[in-house]
Amino acid sequence: MGEQRLRWTGEGLQFLGHSGPGEPIRIGGDEDGPGAKPSDLLPLSLAACTAYDVVVILRKQRQDLRGLEVITESEQDPDPPFAFRRISMRFLLRGTIDERKATRAIDLSHGKYCSVAATLEGTVAMEVSFEIVDDRSEGADTDRG
């Protein structure tokens, strides 16, 4: 069981989150202040959780993954408590990667290994797509919706 801590900095709505040995995470609710909005952390957590698994799985599959970016878009209810209704993730994979192996890696992460996805399943609609950019032959993109 992991332990996380959140500490108010004493300034406005600024906080520092700590998880184990990692660097502090700036969290802020001030319009002009630094830090991620607390509600932005949920889609980011989902993206990080799945991306972690995808990298591990593609490495095990001996794929030439040279870069990975996940772009999220989310929709929340317009009224408090502003519950999440949809989170979409678009994976941008860079390298020489077999499309079937990318599909398998993302499906395994999203459907089996990612604890954040498992927690949100049935509550938040989650959409996943990906694109492969092969550096050796720019323009060889693959899209799965």
Characterization of this structure:
It is built from three helices and seven strands, in the order E-E-E-H-E-E-H-H-E-E. The chain is of the alpha+beta class and 145 residues long. The strands form two sheets. A four-stranded mixed β-sheet has the order 4-5-6-7, covered by helices on one side. A three-stranded antiparallel β-sheet has the order 1-2-3, with no helix packed on it. 18% of the residues are buried. The longest helix has 20 residues, at 41-60. The model has no long low-confidence stretch (mean pLDDT 91). Helix 1 (41-60) crosses helix 2 (99-113).
Largest sheet strand order = 4-5-6-7
Average predicted confidence as pLDDT: 91
H/E order of the elements?
Answer: EEEHEEHHEE
Look at the helices and sheets and give the structural class: alpha+beta
Tally the beta strands: 7
- Report the major sheet: 4 strands, mixed
The value of Rg in angstroms is 17 Å
Number of helical segments with 4 or more residues: 3
For this structure, the quaternary state is: single chain
Low-confidence stretches: none
The best one-word shape is globular
Q: What percentage of amino acids are in beta strands?
A: 35-45%
N-to-C terminal Cα separation, in Å? 35 Å
Determine the fraction of residues in helical runs and give it as a percent range.
25-40%
